[in-house]
Design a protein that fits this description.
By secondary structure, the chain is α/β, with parallel strands linked by helices. About 35% of the residues lie in helices and about 20% in strands. About 10% of the residues have low confidence.
């Protein structure tokens, strides 16, 4: 995973100027390697330039082992950005990495690198070992830092006020309450205002500061979540529950959201919510995905964002009672409510057992909050043990069989589900475009099937005939293709 790491180099001005010159020379070298192809992203900002390890680390006295040093990118190539814009080299250098006075006669400047993975201390250690006075502080995308006194990165962390963490906005005097382990009670009471340094801030949102921060990198936040929280009643002055803000709180059972509140992407994902009350709200995708919600009243005025193939570009939709599918598939995906709806569609022949059972695979993981019995109320412990046997692929396969035996799927789905089982029971043996099955392999599968009495002799014969037909057709296609080759 690519992650941005922000650095602050401290030391004497002379040594910092030398380090800055080396960073700028590295950017120029990368530009030469790319034949001057200085590209930009969709916002007109310069893209990341990959680092030539040998060129860079030789500048600091390293003579070998370059491949083991890690993979790096220069963030935004700020020096080249100014040079290509027509700024004289010396001025461009100062604009890219301005050196400022720090304390005790020392100076500092900031720079950023991007990593394929977590921050690699080799870069810091190599630079520090080369100089006499330079010490480098860092903050990575997971909020790991060696700046223990937060002399440089205090703005990247929430502020502790009255025993809770807040992300403060000094311009608008608003505050976001950070959802973390400091929510120690079973019921959370959210204050309307907080005081800090003589200023009053209105509390307007609930946030995950890891996502709120511009250093956010890992997608789901890493701060410790509340351990004992059972109920969250969001007051009317809260305008937004941010992306992933209250996600991954297994203990949370009851949530009430007022009119006018916007619920962000994955805001309550994988919580243990069973009792949900919604006002006139806006819901982003997956905000209640993986919860235990079985039923909820959705006001007609509810809106939600549905994302297309471009990911970051959302389409605003409104809930229509006659066409509710998108909101269940997106906002409430992987909940008992969405699974039961699909199961009912399977019974009516409106949904393929293939897609239904594929979606069920998450239920058979031991840490899943949604349980199979939420969807199949008749399920016994013995059934569950059988469904979970071996691994997740087998759980999906077994659900197909379980659903057939208990009449959850229509007759049209039965044959399809059995063929799906044969094609997926042994990875590497059978695929949609590569169907082959040896007699011993079929006997092995047949023995498992007969344990549950799924296939009749007629059906087994039918499947073998179809498999043989597919194999012959494929061999014919390959032969015709070979004959058409010009060599």
């Amino acid at each position: 995973m690519l992650t941005i790491v922000e650095y602050v180099a401290t030391g004497s001005r002379e040594e910092l100027e030398d380090l800055r010159a080396k960073l700028c020379a590295t950017e120029e070298h990368e530009d030469e390697l790319n034949d001057g192809d200085f590209s930009f992203d969709y916002d007109g900002e310069p893209t990341f330039s990959s680092l030539d390890n040998e060129h860079f680390f030789k500048e600091f006295g390293v003579l070998d082992g370059f491949d083991e040093m890690g993979v790096y990118w220069i963030c935004g190539t700020p020096y080249l950005w100014n040079v290509k814009g027509g700024t004289e080299s010396g001025k461009a250098m100062e604009l890219a990495y301005p050196i400022n006075e720090w304390k005790d006669g020392l100076y500092c400047f900031r720079f950023q690198f991007r990593y394929d993975g977590e921050e690699n201390p080799l870069l810091r250690e190599t630079i520090e070992n080369f100089y006499k006075t330079i010490k480098i502080f860092y903050l990575d995308g997971y909020h790991n830092t060696n700046d223990t006194n937060l002399e440089f990165f205090a703005d990247k962390f929430p502020t502790l006020i009255d025993g809770l963490h807040y992300v403060l906005n000094d311009e608008y005097h608003t505050a976001g309450l950070n959802c973390d382990e400091l929510w120690s009670g079973e019921v959370m009471t959210i204050p309307e205002t907080v005081e800090h340094n003589g200023e009053t801030y209105r509390v307007t949102e609930i946030v995950d500061f890891m996502h709120h921060s511009d250093m956010y990198a890992n997608g789901y936040g890493i701060g410790s979540k509340p351990k004992n929280l059972l109920e969250l009643v969001i007051p009317p002055y809260i305008q937004c529950v941010g992306d992933f803000a209250c996600a991954y709180i297994p203990s949370l059972r009851k949530v009430s959201i007022p009119d006018g509140c916007s619920v962000g992407y994955g805001a309550f994902m994988n919580c243990g919510i069973e009792d949900l009350t919604l006002g006139d709200v806006h819901l982003d995708m997956k905000c209640f995905s993986g919860t235990r919600v079985k039923d909820v009243e959705i006001p007609d005025s509810t809106s939600w964002t549905e994302y297309g193939d471009f990911g970051g570009f959302g389409q605003l939709l409104h809930f229509v009672k006659e066409e509710p599918e998108s909101i269940f598939e997106g906002v409430f995906s992987n909940t008992p409510m969405s699974f039961v709806r699909q199961l009912e569609e399977c019974r009516r022949g409106e949904c393929s057992a293939y897609y239904f059972c594929h979606g069920l695979s998450s239920l058979f993981k031991k840490d899943s909050l949604v349980k199979p019995e939420d969807v199949f109320p008749e399920m016994s412990d013995e059934d569950l043990e059988w469904l979970r046997k071996k691994d997740n692929n087998y759980a999906v396969r077994n659900v197909v069989i379980y659903g057939m035996l208990h009449g959850y799927f229509t007759r049209d789905d039965h044959y399809m589900a059995k063929l799906f089982f044969l094609r997926n029971a042994r990875p590497g043996i059978m695929h949609d475009n590569d169907i082959s099955l040896s007699l011993p392999e079929f006997k092995d599968l047949e023995a498992e099937l007969n344990l549950k009495g799924v296939l009749s002799e007629e059906e087994k014969s039918d499947i073998l005939n179809r498999l043989e037909k597919d194999r012959l057709e494929r061999e014919k296609s390959i032969k015709e293709f070979d004959e058409e080759l010009p060599f």
